Amino acid sequence: MKKRDSLGARLRYGFDKSMAAGPIALIGWLAVVSLLIIIAAAAFLAVTRIAPEGGEPLNFFEAFWESLMRTLDSGTMGGDTGWAFRIVMLVVTLAGIFVVSALIGVLSAGVDGKLDELRKGRSRVLESDHTIILNWSPSIFDVISELVIANASRRRPRIVVMANMDKVAMEDEIAAKVGKLGNTRIICRSGDPTDLYDLAIVNPQTSRSVIVLSPDGDDPDSQVIKTVLALVNDPSRRTDPYNIAAEIRDGKNAEVARVVGGAEVQLVLADQLISRIVVHSSRQSGLSGVYSELLDFDGCEIYTTAQPGLAGKTFGEAVMAYEHCALIGLCDQEGRVNLNPQSELVIGKDMRAIIIAEDDAAIRLGSTAIKIDTAAIRGPRSVEAKPERTLILGWNRRGPIITYELSRYVAPGSILTVAADTPGLEQEVAGLPVAGDNLSVSCRITDTSSSTALASLDVPSYDHVLVLGYSEAMAAQPADTRTLVTLLHLRKIADDAGLHISIVSEMIDVRNRELAAVTKADDFVVSNRLVSLMLAQASENQYLAAIFDDLLDEQGSEIYMRPVADYVAIDQPLTFWTIAQSARLRGEIAIGYRRIRAGDADQRALGGVTVNPPKSEALTYLPEDRIIVLARD
Q1: What's the whole-model pTM score?
Q2: Most buried of 40, 197, 314, 363 (most Cβ within 10 A)?
Q3: Domains and CATH numbers, the chain
Q4: Neighbour count for residue 495 (Cβ, 10 Å)
Q5: 3-class SS at 243?
Q6: How many CB atoms lie within 10 A of CB 44?
């Protein structure tokens, strides 16, 4: 009795365990039960020699087959004869009906569970060489759009998205806002990117790169840092380093993120990036178009590649060695970036070239005959720095960074006026940090969407006007709407005064840029889009964050737009070779120009900016045209 109880307990334990294990285990148990019933029936028929009426007794194997057929098909017993045989087969058939019914139920439940798992996005990704995007933010649509362009030449590209959202909701939003995906397939999964188990769902071990977005909500940087920590410290992680591009909003958290991610992470400091581009663009009209071109996959990009043919050359010689691309710097073995180094620097065989090109296939040494008009080259002339008056309309968390960056560039005696109606603005402006004593800052509490309030500010008296969105107090669309209203008022003020006012505006949503074009502002810095472009590029180029840190740093080489007449005589058509040589003699690198001509197409809204033009093409320039150079000052 105890043995039977022990056997029954073990069977019950095994069955309960299989119930928890899933459909496969249940199917196995049903198969065992069916086999036991069939064997028992076959043995009973063989021992008792019960047979159909008028038939020969069945041996064990024949009885096994007869029982098996009745277990699988209840209609088989309809032709049985002899009551003893019928009763045995009835028992077998009833048991078979139970088993088959249970099997159908298990299969149905298993299929429903799998479909529900797929709907919830909890199944493991089996892809390899894929790009992973973790977290959800408004930037994700631009990131995906850029990756789709970058993937055009790749075979079977895949982008895997994981966030704390419903899988179907993510797929619907991407389908509605991204548009054409080309040959790229988007795979969405629901999960917590900071959780090791959930990270395993997207299979980072075989990924090409990982992009960590800054999510909405409180303390997004902590979420990003914890996600990077989970990636790089996973006990089951791969031995090869990851290529991680992570977005950090507050620069104060950058050091912690670098400690956590080490050499495997590139940080895109969103607020610093946008603020610096706003400041640079406000001082040089059209500069945002240059940055957009360098960050956009649909045009010229920055590549870091080995160029053995440059070994032994000086950097000055190497700059003039390419016709269809522009050499702008070098990268050493340790990954240190050196933009626009001294012309006399000899390039080592282990150095990598930093090159602007339309495609990596276009990067090749050699060119057609170099045509330089040495007589047209002009020498440098000194320009005296003058005090500047700058007006900021509107305010958000990037305001303090913009103020500090501006104070690093302006001449002594410069003035900054901040006009907005955000709570606590006076106290915040009073405590703004500035570099040195060149810039004095004042505050005006005013409604920047009111024409009367704007008129009282004497806007035409300022050299530069920056319009910031109220992104901290409003959602993206209402904030952009208020910015548009401010820009329309500024346009009317400029028209009434008969003057051109240098205006740079920050837009949050790229879709509003076309609406803002009627305001005739000089530049639009689209916040989310610039961050998205940077993240997408950094996922493909592990040196890009360091390159842009150098480009946007006052201590490094920066991009300037200067009158073409300062470099060459413009009384006749000139090749870009001549302009490049004039810049090289000054220790600068010419990377493009800005020519605005009536009737010229500007399909990409770059404001006449052309980066990396063909050097052998001869063009006629006007005094208002600008040369884009990489220079130290």
Answers
A1: 0.77
A2: 363
A3: 19-120 (1.10.287.70), 130-263 (3.40.50.720), 389-527 (3.40.50.720), 557-629 (3.30.70)
A4: 11
A5: coil
A6: 15
